[in-house]
Input
Amino acid sequence: MSIQKEIPELLKAGVINQETASRILDYYRIEKGTSNNRFFIVFGVLGAIITGLGIILIIAHNWDELSRFTRTIFAFLPLVIGQILCAYVLMKRRQSTAWREAGAAFLFFAVGASISLVSQVYNIPGNLGSFLLTWMLLCFPLIYVMRSSIVSLLYLAGITFYACEIGYWSFPTSFPYLFWPLFLLITPHYYLFREKSRSNFINFHNWLVPLSLVIVLGAFSKYHEEFMFTAYISLLGLLYLIGDSEFFRGNKLRNNGYKIIGSLGTVGLLLASSFDWFWESLRRKDLELAELINAPEFLAFIIISLLAMGMFYFNQKNRSLIDIKPLSPIFILFMITFFLGFFSSIAVVLINIYILGLGILIIREGGNQNHLGILNFGLLIITALVTCRFFDTDLSFVFRGIMFVLVGTGFFAANYWLLKKRKVNE
Output
């Protein structure tokens, strides 16, 4: 660290005293130790995974030449090694994160390998969905026994894959209802580790949890896709509100997957619904109330919307109306507009007004916070809206050109104004 080299000079010049110098040196010593430990964990987990895969590859290469009895022994061998390793870690290395994560990751893959090898040796019938379900159910206790976040991430990826296999890729498809209880199994681990906000494992969870929910929700759509659209808007609104809650407020934006996925997803769906074809197809729908109430898409929409409204109330109860973030109430406005869209063509006009208003309010927020990223996000929203209207309106090319010139000038002027404001404040 360059500042460490400059400490003697700062001491000599009287800029800092000996006590401050000692505190700076202690800080960087702890940071260096944390960094080394982090690398040890990463390479320990990678080593365990690569070793496990190597053992499976060696066994697979000679598989056909082995007797059934030998193959059975080899099928259980990774599992036995993994259990011995985890038992050793629990007895001798319980406090070492690297040992716990590496041992748990090895056993996680050993369980999967043993299930598949035994199924192959004894010709046990099944499909990919049942294999993934068995594997994840057998491995979820590792999250708590080994206090392993890497297994929690692998488990989350596994149940997402399972839901996609059942709901998207297999034929005939079915609704992956089991995903929800499987998902709830990891929430206590996520909650218990919530205070380790600087941990990379928690940061990965902050991305993978919302991503998993966004991917899986579509698997519950079959006959009423239009209600799944509103369910997605509510889900993305809920994710944004979670990311904007007190718990995530101190986090860096890159570690807040909820806020980024919620923001970008909401804007993306709003832009998709700003075309008239979406609302035209909605008006042609002939919906029966009795059929609609029992539809999984409608139930998903109701449940997620109620959760989002609860989160909106929770976030806003101690704030004034002026503190409401522009993206926070968008899912409520969209819900009202969506039901209006069944009867009136004004819905498409309202959606375009929402997007324009959203862009302007976000630019204003960026200006108030002196934040170039937020300001340019608002400008990008307006640019995207102008681009969408470029393709589906009958306006003349001259008028379209003027719109782009105005937006480009707005980009330059807004950034220039904010940079000038910063210089004045300095």
The mean pLDDT is 82.
